[in-house]
């Protein structure tokens, strides 16, 4: 939805509202950070040696940016300093602080990564390099999917979680100093922040940062709405101020008299939170209950319960509002007691009661968890592996649906994100090649690809793409697919397009399949082609109007003709020739089943309704697009078979297939913390790949739909046995329609 209001409300009256001219309040300015202020922060947790290194990095950055100014007129170094200070507030280690100070020197001052590595070590240089690469990512189009993909590419490229944290600090400071930019740029940056960085902060549980960024983005995206809402809200809050103040004083006195030291914070909904609720539910502001509340922070969990008792003795609790997240933490490790009371005016007031440590986790999320780890600060040791940190995020996710999204997107990282020359993001399966990219754009482009440029360098078509690559495909009308391409493309789309092209020029494969299928169909009548005389074959050709048997085989192979019908015709001509008149039909023998190896190619496909795997009894349906292999228990197959029995043939699995097949499992679990992780780890311990997961809530149960890869029925049975024993799993079944 576009903003119907003027892009800069400072210009005056909105035509749609027509109230008095509005002078928009500038966003409160961020203070300029000095090096001395940064050091004060660092002294809390870094030693003298580390601070000395930070100083070297500062001096280098300072000299590099010397004479460079920000658009606001301030010396450029004020920006890296502000970023470093934010990182210091999160207690990032000295390397990360150095990288924050140096984060723009590669990009702006053309310092080489090697020079940084020599001066400050590889780890710092790599972080700066990562940050420079992220800087080059440009978010152009606003579409939900685009935002989502952009976020993923960012996470995937960062590798080291410290890079993400520095990037978030960088973005926060850029948002705080956005005022000097031209309006279109403000909007673009604010949009990008809202769509990409705000969700990342949220995932990391960094509540304070999340609120700050969201508020700033809202301010620049919808200046007028922001302003109006802010006024209305502060007016309502003023109305309640006195009542709230009375409650606060009374609570404070009571706590003090019981000898409890507490810090009490006012808890307010964000402007954006209120705005979103109004939009989503189509409510006017007056219909939104802007609930007031306090967070009470005390020393120990025991004190939390004492405070709860005190509150409930002061005011009447609202039934059903008490929640104990201390005994049972939320999935994201959030802990607090929640309750709501009725104040003397009959209005609800919400309370959260927690310890200081719980408060930290609630406010700064993941970072707090590391800060409380042994080292006392976020270091590379605390997080040697980005994957591990994603596992941490899984703990932070608000509910299992969100956790699932993380799993899909990151943990089973199966995608790579690249760009078109126009900066559109394209998602491909991991290991996809440049040629897959061309086919993903469209089959026509793929079929006519002559060369590709990756990041402006000519590259082979089979080059495996990496996150962030910019791929430019050159086509020519005379170019066409080459069978060799099949050996390296990874996507189904590329493969099927190449095959269908090859099929159009090379029919050998189809003819072979047609022969096999006809042999199979003839076997039903205890015959084979060697019994057919040239006269019989000619009679058949005359009847169907084809030139040669190869034409007929081809038609059968590509599904244009049914092998059983052709077989019947042949049998009929054969009988006429041999004057076999005694029985109208010879006794039907059990045909030898056609053997399936699962690697036949495009003419033989496994039915997606029942995904048969080796060990299953299987049946084949001849269709216009080839032979479809169904599970013998598939209900869809049974229904189709009743309608057109002629299309169906017996199949059997070959031996020693030595490859995996996908298969769907439905797992019903009770809602329990970490259950998905336990199920997923059982699956991977059974040597199975997970291709896809999906979740559906059903009352107090969750239904997980897994698509896994298994070798055969034994493998699957073993997997199901293991999962069935996971506590919390109440049912597991294979999905066959
Ligand atoms: Mn920057």
> Oligomeric form of this entry?
single chain
Ligand catalogue:
manganese (II) ion
Radius of gyration: 34 Å
Query: Would you tell me the overall average pLDDT?
Result: 80
Major sheet details: 6 strands, mixed
Q: Please give the share of residues in helix.
A: 40-55%
Tell me the structural class.
alpha+beta
**What is the end-to-end distance?**
41 Å
Low-confidence stretches: 1-20, 374-413, 580-590
Instruction: Please report the total strand number as a whole number.
Output: 20
Strand content: 15-25%
Number of helices: 28
The 3D shape can be described as elongated
Keywords:
single chain, 737 residues, alpha+beta, six-stranded mixed beta sheet, five-stranded mixed beta sheet, 47% helix, 15% strand, binds manganese (II) ion
Structure description:
It is a single chain. This protein is of the alpha+beta class and 737 residues long. The protein contains 28 helices and 20 strands. The strands form 5 sheets. Strands 1, 2, 3, 4, 5 and 6 form a 6-stranded mixed β-sheet that branches. Strands 12-16-14-15-13 form a 5-stranded mixed β-sheet, with helices on one face. It has a 4-stranded antiparallel β-sheet with strand order 18-19-17-20. Strand 18 and strand 19 form a beta hairpin. The longest helix is centred in the N-terminal third of the chain and has 35 residues, at 223-257. Mean pLDDT is 80; it is low at 1-20, 374-413 and 580-590. The structure holds manganese (II) ion. Residues 79, 103-104, 170 line the site of manganese (II) ion (MN). Manganese (II) ion is lined by residues 79, 103-104, 170.
